[in-house]
Specification:
Helices cover 47% and strands 14% of the residues. The protein contains eleven helices and nine strands. A six-stranded mixed sheet has the order 1-2-3-4-6-9, sandwiched between helices. α1 packs parallel to α3. The longest helix is centred in the first third of the chain and has 19 residues. It is globular. It starts with a strand and ends in a 15-residue tail after the last helix.
């Protein structure tokens, strides 16, 4: 793809690298289309277990390419609506991907770069990374990424981030829920090693179960457990525990052996 590099290893771990380092991986129409297509393809590839999203060069993503935003400001209402829908669809594609996703963040994640971070299931960053919901600095608002920000940090923190557009540190991002882990760049292999630990944990679990988890949790909201929710959860577990992956999981546990989906250690047959 024009704006991405994609590589998948023998374990089924796909690395999607945003490859516009000259503009700090800011995205435009082309990168949005590339990301949407990449996650659509990888999400349906049975050989892929996990997807890691990262950025080439000095940054994860500086958000929207300002030349793209300038074109949008000069375009028609209809063009702007369709363009924004494509951006919203791309984030939804990442968020609803049936495979576990990890954002590997370094440098900066600004504006839409925060949206990309939050669309992934797990987000890990270096201690020196900085984050900003920066749209208000340009006279616009974080509309498409707004739901992801609210879901991650809650309404009050989301308002604070969006209204001030201030940069925050990785430590602050961890505290409020934008991140799951912060690592020193020189600590035990740094960011790559930290992401590899998450990958290793994810690979221990049933891939079909992980897809079911993502589908189910996307349907649940914080609030009362209604009769509809109870029925949804009962029907889901009844269906899944009758499947072949569940039978293999129970058999492996009782047989004190690794399940079939667990990668074999190097050198093993």
């Amino acid at each position: 793809m024009e704006t991405l590099q994609i590589a998948t290893d023998a374990r089924g771990v796909a690395r999607v690298t945003m490859n516009r380092p000259e503009v700090f991986n800011a995205f435009d129409e082309t990168m949005i289309a590339d990301l949407d297509a990449a996650f659509a393809r990888l999400g349906q590839d049975p050989a892929v277990r996990i997807i890691v999203l990262q950025g080439a060069g000095k940054a994860f993503s500086a958000g929207a390419d300002l030349q793209w935003m300038k074109r949008a400001s000069e375009a028609t209402q209809d063009w702007n609506v369709e363009d924004a829908r494509r951006f919203a669809g791309m984030l939804d594609r990442i968020a609803r991907c049936p495979k576990p996703t990890i954002a590997q963040v370094h440098g900066v994640a600004l504006g839409g770069g925060v949206g990309l971070t939050l669309a992934c299931d797990i987000a890990v960053a270096t201690a020196g990374a900085q984050f900003a919901v920066s749209e208000a600095r340009f006279g616009i608002l974080p509309s498409v990424i707004g739901p992801y920000v609210v879901n991650a940090v809650g309404p009050r923190e989301a308002r604070r981030l969006a209204l001030t557009a201030s940069r925050i540190t990785a430590a602050e991002a961890l505290r409020i829920g934008l991140l799951h882990e912060v690592v020193e760049s020189d600590a035990a292999g740094g960011l790559d090693a930290a992401v590899e630990r998450w990958v290793s944990e994810l690979l221990m679990n049933g891939p079909q179960a992980q897809a079911e988890i993502k589908t189910l949790l996307a349907q649940l909201e914080v609030g009362p457990v209604s009769s509809e929710v109870r029925e949804l959860t009962a029907q889901t577990i009844a269906r899944v525990r009758m499947g072949s992956e569940a039978r293999e999981g129970f058999a492996a546990f009782l047989g004190k052996r690794p399940a079939a989906w667990v990668p074999k250690a190097p050198g093993m047959d």
